[in-house]
Amino acid sequence: MIRNYFKTAWRNLWRNKGFALINILGLATGLTCCLLLTLYLQHELSYDHFHTKGDRIVRVIMEYKIGDSGNKGNFTSTKVFPEFRRQFPEVASGVRLSGTDRIVKYGDQTWEEQNVLHADSTFFEMFDFKLLNGTASEVLKAPNQVVITRSVAEKYFGKEEAVGKTLLLNSSQQPYLVTGVSEDCPSNSQIRFSMVASISSFGPLQEETYSNANFVTYLLMDRAESLNALQEKINRLMQKENAEAGFKVNFDLEPFTRVHLYSPYDAYTPNINISYIYIIAGVALLILVIACFTYVNLSTARSTERAREVGIRKVAGAWKSQLFWQFISESAVLTTFALGISLLLAMALLPSFNQLAGVNLSYDRFGHPAVWGAALTAVLTVALLAGSYPALVLSSFQPVKVLKGAFKNTGSGNTLRKGLIVFQFVISVFLIISTFIISSQLRFIQQKKLGYERENRLLLGMDQRLNEKKEVVKAELNSLRSVSGVSFAYESPVTIRGGYNMSGSDLGQTMAVTANPVDEDYIKVNGLELMAGTDLSAQDILDVSKEDYTQNYFHFILNESAARALGWSPEEAIGKKMYLDESRPGEVKGVVRDFHFESLHTPIRPLVLFPASWTNTAIVKIQGDHVQETISAIEAKWKQLAPHRPFTFRFMDEDYQQMYHAEMRTGRVFNIFASLAVLLACLGLFGLSAYSVRQRVKEVGVRKVLGASGLQIVALLSSGFVKLVMIAFAIATPLAWLAMNQWLRQFSYRVETGWEIFAAAGAVALLLALVTVSFQAVKAAGANPVKSLRTE
Questions:
Q1: Largest Cα–Cα separation, the chain
Q2: % of the chain beyond a pLDDT of 70
Q3: Is there a contact between 99 and 116 (Cβ–Cβ < 8 Å)?
Q4: Distance CA 374, CA 364 (A)
Q5: What is the CA radius of gyration of the chain?
Q6: Where exactly are the structural domains of the chain?
Q7: Is there a contact between 744 and 601 (Cβ–Cβ < 8 Å)?
Q8: Would you place residue 792 in the very low, low, confident or very high pLDDT band (cuts 50, 70, 90)?
Q9: Number of Cβ atoms within 10 Å of the Cβ of 546
C-alpha cells in the first residue's frame, strides 16, 4: 500500500511538472537557507566545547574603581592566579596569558608573527589543544621554550623536524627552543595562537599586586559546581583587601564556554552577542515557516484542478484516509527532492557563505549527525505540516458536487489561505523594517564623525631598536612626497585601553582614567581638535626622557569628558596640577574635543594623552591618491630603517571595522536571508493570486462583456491582496519597533527609528505584493471572455 502511495505520488508530480518545480524550488530555497544558517549557528554555539575541562574553567574579569570612576575588562595582574590558588582550595590550577605580535627570525628569514602567546607551563594541561610533538607538562616548563602550530612549522621548516630548532624572537633576537608542535587552533576557539612561549621567559614577573594588570587569567576549578562558592570567597577576600587600599578591585568569574556568546569583553577572537544568535535562528525559522506556507498556498491553488480526480477516486471506493495519505506521500516525495537539491546547493554555496558570514565552515560539517538529524526532522516536519492542510482539503471534497461541477473551495479554507498570506507578510514586513534599521545603524557606524580621521592612515609596528632612533624614522618617512605626517604612540585613536589613576591637589578627587602615551604630532596627524590650551611639543617629550626618572615633568592633554568629570571648563583646566599614577607629576596643557576611542557601544569616558619617549605604533598619514605607489615607497624606506623586521602594515580603518566584526557579519547574513524570506513570501502570494484568478474566471469574463476595462479588472483582482498586506503592515510595525529598539539599546550612539523607515518598509512590501499579484491579474484581464464563459 505504501509503495503504491509513493508510486502514484510520483506519477502525479511528473504529470504536473510546472507545479512540482515551483514547489520544489521554493522548499529547496527555504531548506538551503536553513541548512547554511544551522551550520553557522552550530559553529557559534560550539565555541570552546572541545575542551574536556571546559565546564571547570573560568575567565577572571577585573573591575578597578576609584570613587565613581573605573575600568572593567578581561585584564588581570600576575597576582590573581597564584594568590587565588593559595587562598582557595576550589582553584585546582590556572594559566596566565599575554598575547601580542612578535618578530620571529629563523636563518636569514624574518616574519612578523601574529597571535604569539606567553603562558604558564599549565597551558596545554588545562586546554585541549592537540600536541603533535611534545608532552603537555614539559613543553613550557623552562624559560625560552616555545610551541608552534603545524602551519607555522611548515612555513618555517618545511618538511624538516621542528622540535629542537631555535627561533629568535623580538627585536632583541632572544633565542627560543621549539619544544613542541600543536595542531592549528580550531575555528571555534576563543583562544587563538600561532605559537605559545613560556611566560617564565619574561624573567621574574613584577611584584605581586592587583593594580598592574596586563594579563588574561583562566582558573581551573576542582569541579564545575564550585563556581558560586568560589565567587563568594573572592568577593569576601577583596572586601578585606579593598579596606586596606585607596581603591577598589573586584573580580568576576566568567564560565569559559559562555565567554564567546555572553561576555562583553573579547577574548583572542571577537565575541558575538547572544542576541545575534537569536536573530539568525529566528530568520532561519521564519524562512522555513514561509517556505511551508508557500507550499500550502500553491497546493490549494491547484485544488480545483484535482477536484474531479478526488471525486472519481471516492466514487471508485477510495477512503478518506487513503486519499489523505496519498497527498501526504506527494508532499513527502516533493520535500525529499527539495532536501536533495538543498544539500547540493548548500555545499555549492558554502564558500560564498563563508565569505559573507566571515567564518570558515568546512564540508565535514555536512556529515555531522546533528546536521543530518536536523535535515531529516525538517523534511518530516515540512512534509506533515505543509502537506496536511492540502491533504485534508482535497480528501474532504464531496464527490457528488464535484462531478456535477458545483464545487467551490471557499469558506474557512479561503479564510485560512488569506490568513497564511497575512502571516507571511507580517514576517516579510517585520524583516524589511529590521533590515532597514540594522542597515541604517551599520551605515551610521561607518559614517559617524568620530572626532578623529581614520582614512589614509597606515599603522606600523615599533620596537625598542626603532624607538632609539624614532626621530630619524620620522624624518625619513616625512621626506616622502606622499606622506603628510608621522606620529608615534602606544595606541591609535581607534582603541585606547590603558588604565591609569589621575590625582592631585587641584583635582579635589582621584579618579580612574584611560590614558595613551603619545608624541607631539599625535593630535595633528589624527585630526583631533584642540579646544583650549596648546599642543604637545618636542620639548615636552624631552622633559619626560631624563635619565633620572624622578626629574621627569609631564604636560597632559585631557579630553572634554575628563575636564567635565572634574568640574572644569576646557579653559579652566589649563595649568591645573595633577599626577598620573602618582609617578608622573605634571600639569594640564590642553583639552581636546571628545573623540570615540572605544566602540559606539560605550559612552566616551575620561581620557588623558601624555608625552612619552617609548611607543608601540607608528601612524603614517598618506595622501589619498596613488596609495599603492605610496605604500611601496614607505616599504623601501622601511627596509633601510628597520632591516631587522619585515614590513607589515594595516590601515587604521581596518582596526575600526574589526571592532564591529560581529555586527557587520550578522548584518550581511541578515540582509541576504531576509531578502530570500521576502521573495518566498511573494511566491506564496503568487500561489494565492493564481488560485483567486481561477476561482473568478467567469466573473472576469462577465465583467469584460459588460464593458469593464483591463485596468478595472486588475484593480478588482488586486484590491483584496492590498488589504491583506495593509493588515500585515499594521501587525508587523509595532513588533518590529519593539524588537529593533531592544537591539539598538546595546549601542550608546545609535540611529533614531523615525516613521520614515516604517513608511518605506510598508511601501516596499506593498510594491512587491502589487507586482506579484499584477502578473496574474493582467493575465486574467487580457484573456478572451468568450473562452472563459463557454468553459464548464
A1: 109
A2: 81
A3: yes
A4: 16
A5: 34
A6: 1-46+271-407, 54-262, 464-644
A7: no
A8: very low
A9: 12
